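User: For a benchmark we're assembling, each entry needs the component sequences followed by a predicted structure for the full assembly. Here are entry 17's components. Please fill in the structure.
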Amino acid sequence: MNRKKLIGNAFRIVVYALVIGFFIWALSNQYLSYIWSDSSTFLVLLRQHSELVLVSSILAILIAVPAGILITRPRFRKAEWLVTNIVNFGQTIPSLAVLALMISVLGIGFQTAVFALFIYSLLPIFRNTVAGLDTIDKNLIDAAKGMGMRPYQILFRIELPNSAYSILAGIRTAVVLNIGTAALAYVVGGGGLGVWIFTGIQLFDNGFLISGAIPVTLMAIGADYLLRKAEYVLVPKGSRQEART
Amino acid sequence: MITFNQVTKQYNGSSTAVKNVDFTVDQGKIVVLLGPSGCGKTTLLRMVNRLESITEGEIIIDNDNSKDLDAIELRRKIGYVIQSNGLFPNMTIEENVMIVPDLLGWSKKKKKERFNYLMKLIGLDAKDYGKRLPQELSGGQQQRIGVVRALAADPPVMLMDEPFGALDPIIREKIQDEFLAIQREVKKTILFVSHDIDEAIKMADKIMLLRDGEIMQYDTPSEMMMHPKNEFVSQFFGKDRAIKSLSLHTVKNLEEVIGLAQMDESIQDTKTINVHQDLRNTLSMLLNQEADQVIVTNDEGGKIGSITIDLVQKYLHFEIKGKMSVSQEG
Ligand SMILES: Nc1ncnc2c1ncn2[C@@H]1O[C@H](COP(=O)(O)OP(=O)(O)OP(=O)(O)O)[C@@H](O)[C@H]1O
Ligand SMILES: [Mg+2]
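Assistant: Structure for entry 17:
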């Protein structure tokens, strides 16, 4: 376990070093200058980007976690494969196809982008919620039942604490992916930092491109870091993955 | 007291797991359910706290038909121990042990007192162990916590499904002794599943031997070995059932029937054994230390005679084999 941890840490340090190196390179070439010279636009785009991510992620959590809980209840267990297949199938539809479909229904703008991001965040959260609940030792549930716990007590005292690690990992994956994917919101007129990134691509202007891309990267790294910290607070010590191995 | 009235269990679409079972577990006694794998022991047990439904018949617990009771309340009045201890990894030991009292809404103070009392029963420091997580305990300690957790709300009835099955033999024997000592104090009505004959003989006031969901014999351990009702029972206990049943007799029994031998003062360093020790342990002690005699002491430590392999053999021959049903010998 120690070795695994060591390799993991080394890997993370290398990635951080690359990002920082890139950051310094961009800075020394004045590629980030738009952030200062046009800071009012930057702040608008940053706020839009954050809103896209927050609204779509929160919606996805509010739908996918309860859905995962519901589908693992004995009453609905039989439908699990069906729902999982539908969600998996949804994931295989190309993002652009979803966007095109959304545009034809919702028109162009913020809602369309949020909706598409929401759809894409559902699967990792749903799948990890179901996996977390499914991998709980059946003997624990049996013991809880045998001691006279009611179903909701079993859910809140046993099942959720012991699957919190997996559920939060799903949320973290979804949010980090979401931050990157939200750059595509530009395509449907959803705003966000994608505006600068795509402008940069179209004008061959590294300044715009990098002034958009670097903040997105930093946001993703920051979100990853914060959500890992949240795991430490929210997951009971005895149910942490590391502790178990 | 638990009474089974013509209880039958049929799982959906499969053959009958329990057939017309009819028996009573007396107040304060341990009944061990014994039998080959798949004979229905776990099913029988789980019908008592309604983790499995009853297909036909009824189970009466202290004058109440289990069907008429609220399943949740019924379970809180029945201690339940399973082989894989079932401790919750997200809770401390104290939280684990106090689950049922917590469900019943006990006050903090009452819970604390109870926890301290229970930990004293199993000789673990309440302060230290209370704060630990299950994974910070050894397998044996976890299993003992599983047992006291079932005792936490002082239920009159306990269901134990191979509670010591996952432990190594030495620890298992220790915990069995410890549990019997606790049982002498708390006097619960216990249904205990085992597939270990020695464990059954040791723990049981009565053994129920099952095969394919049917009762083969329901008797005291010694009756079961001395007078097996059919071929299956005598085969189950094996050819050495006479020797096995030595563990139901003590040195005291032997003394009363054929008397002890004189002490041979010329032999040095002989071991001593308490007069209440069972004869099976005595025999293995005699065999292990290759001594001709072991000095027998009474509770005050006084030497009252000696015991030899010959004496045990004589006792085995006349008292045990002589009284066994002859037709089953073979
Ligand atoms: N949930 C179930 N659905 C269908 N059949 C079952 C179920 N549980 C048990 N059975 C069947 O009922 C019979 C009795 O099973 P049970 O678990 O009571 O046996 P057991 O005596 O406890 O065995 P073991 O010593 O292996 O634990 C077996 O044939 C088993 O296959
Ligand atoms: Mg079983």
